[in-house]
């Protein structure tokens, strides 16, 4: 195993992540780097609407006659600056503290919530998208026997804008990453788990939210005049450290992405 170079998180932060399934690291990126990321994204968004019909990476949303891009899959394909983000020493180091010395790229996606238009992302667990559908019944039946350690994948969402309750910051149910893979059909829109505590996770621009792939999370529509742009890099350990079947976002067996 490669030597672990940095320890970014404190033992307290690691314990919080293991208990709650998420943490927010404030002010990870400086203004300069943020400006470069925003400039690249502005270009992508300007050109993206025109090319979206031919490029499946760009997901379009239409509201009130307006057309906007809601999501860019595989954003890492669109500029060296995104590789810099994915390989950022603080983000990779923090992820390494959570999942072990081998940190690999699983996939990237950039969530764009334009002012007034960005829609909700309904309650879900990311693992439901990564585990092949034919495996769901077996995994769901196992309940809590499918533990967070069986699927130690961590998403890092970096905020290019302040992420607030008004523009659709992430909301989590702390501890739900220990509940196993849930049957998505049973999750209601407004109250995914009756009686469960929901917490909002606002974050200033430049901050990074780290969350486990089994935590229940949601983001509300953007009702504000401010955008909320949040690239997500999904990291995984080496395939031998994942104990559930897993595919990447091209449908291949996961575990062969870039190693940081
Ligand atoms: O950023 C968002 O709006 C939601 C992101 C999310 O929940 C996801 O991609 O799994």
Offer a few descriptive terms.
four-stranded antiparallel β-sheet, alpha+beta, single chain, 11 strands, seven-stranded antiparallel β-sheet, 260 residues, binds 2-oxoglutaric acid, Jelly Rolls
Short account of what is shown:
With 260 residues, the protein is an alpha+beta fold. It has helices at residues 11-20, 31-51, 80-86, 89-99, 127-130, 136-142; strands at 22-25, 58-63, 66-73, 104-113, 121-124, 154-158, 170-172, 199-200, 208-212, 217-219, 228-236.
Helix content: 10-25%
Q: Segments where pLDDT lies below 50 for 5+ residues? A: none
Average pLDDT taken over every residue? 91
Radius of gyration: 18 Å
How many structural domains are formed by the residues?
Answer: 1
Helix run count = 6
Order of helices and strands: HEHEEHHEEHHEEEEEE
Bound molecules: 2-oxoglutaric acid
Number of strands: 11
Class by alpha and beta content: alpha+beta
| CATH architecture level-2 label | Sandwich
- Kindly identify the CATH topology: Jelly Rolls
Q: Assign the CATH class.
A: Mainly Beta
Percent of residues in beta strands: 15-25%
**Biggest β-sheet description:** 7 strands, antiparallel
* CATH H level, superfamily name: q2cbj1_9rhob like domain
Largest beta sheet: strand ordering: 1-9-6-11-4-3-2
Separation of the first and last Cα atoms: 13 Å
What is the overall shape?
globular
